[in-house]
């Protein structure tokens, strides 16, 4: 897991579904970078993509979120990464 994955997971860890556009605004990546990270995290089973309810015709809309079964795993991974980063920054660990 790297910085980009962490940013996406941090944005989604509350479990609320977000559209691609909303995520794009939160994480500040390019469209391609976000799409690659979402695909990677979905393949790992850390996030899911679901079809959002549509109020109009046209292309279907999708929302991404961390499923309840993986919230704990994601939270632990983000905390562990934060501790490693803090250790490295303060003490030169690793």
Structure description:
The chain is mainly α and 94 residues long. It has a single domain (3-91), classed as Arc Repressor Mutant, subunit A (Orthogonal Bundle), CATH 1.10.10.10. It has helices at residues 3-12, 20-27, 31-43, 71-91; strands at 18-19, 48-51, 62-65. Strands 1-3-2 form a 3-stranded antiparallel sheet.
Q: In summary, what is this structure?
A:
It is built from 4 helices and 3 strands, in the order αβααββα. With 94 residues, it is mainly α.
What's the mean pLDDT score? 81
Q: Structural class, from secondary structure content?
A: mainly alpha
Number of E-type strands: 3
Q: What's the CATH architecture name?
A: Orthogonal Bundle
Task: Give the radius of gyration.
Answer: 15 Å
Fraction in helix: 55-70%
Strand order of the largest sheet: 1-3-2
Low-confidence stretches: 84-94
CATH top-level class: Mainly Alpha
Q: What's the end-to-end separation, in Å?
A: 16 Å
Keywords:
about 90 residues, disordered C terminus, Arc Repressor Mutant, subunit A
Fold topology:
Elements: H1 3-12, E1 18-19, H2 20-27, H3 31-43, E2 48-51, E3 62-65, H4 71-91
